C-alpha cells in the first residue's frame, strides 16, 4: 500500500512521539515559558535526596494521596523559595523546622511571600512530626478541609492563612 511505513521502519525524523516523550527541560523548548528552570529542578532534587527523618516520616504519610486523598509534592519551587511539601490543589505549604528556625525573620519573609502567592503555610517542629505524626496529619487535614481559617501561632505550630481570591468574592 502507498503511504504506509514498513513495520520495521524508524520513527519519523521530525521527532514525533519520541521528542514529546522527553520532559520539556530535555526537549530544549526555549520558546515556551516553563515555570521550572533546570537549576530549580536540580535544586529541588538535591533537597529531596537530603531528607531528614522528620521529612521522610511525613512524606510517607503525604505521598500517593494517602492523607485524605490530597495530592502533595516535595520541595516545590515557589518564587525564590522551595516548599518542603505543597498541596497545589488546596494552595497549602507544609514546612518542617528544626531549632535553628526559632523566631526566624527569614521564615517570616518566606511565609509572607508564599501568602502573597495565595498559599497558606503550616509550620511544624521536626521533632513533633517524629513524636506525634498522627496529630500533625490531623492538623494538616484541618487546614486542607478549611477548619483552620485564620492565622494561628502556638508553641508547636504556626499557620499563616492566605485568603484566596474566590473566598474574597464569596465573603463580599
TrEMBL record:
Gene3D superfamilies: VSR Endonuclease. Keywords: Endonuclease, Hydrolase, Nuclease. Pfam families: DUF559 (PF04480). GO terms for molecular function: endonuclease activity. This is Endonuclease domain-containing protein. Residues 1-42 are annotated as: Disordered. InterPro entries: DUF559, Endonuclease_DUF559_bact, Restrct_endonuc-II-like. The keyword Ribonucleoprotein does not apply. The keyword Ligase does not apply. Residues 42-144 form the DUF559 domain. PANTHER family: BLL0828 PROTEIN (PTHR38590).
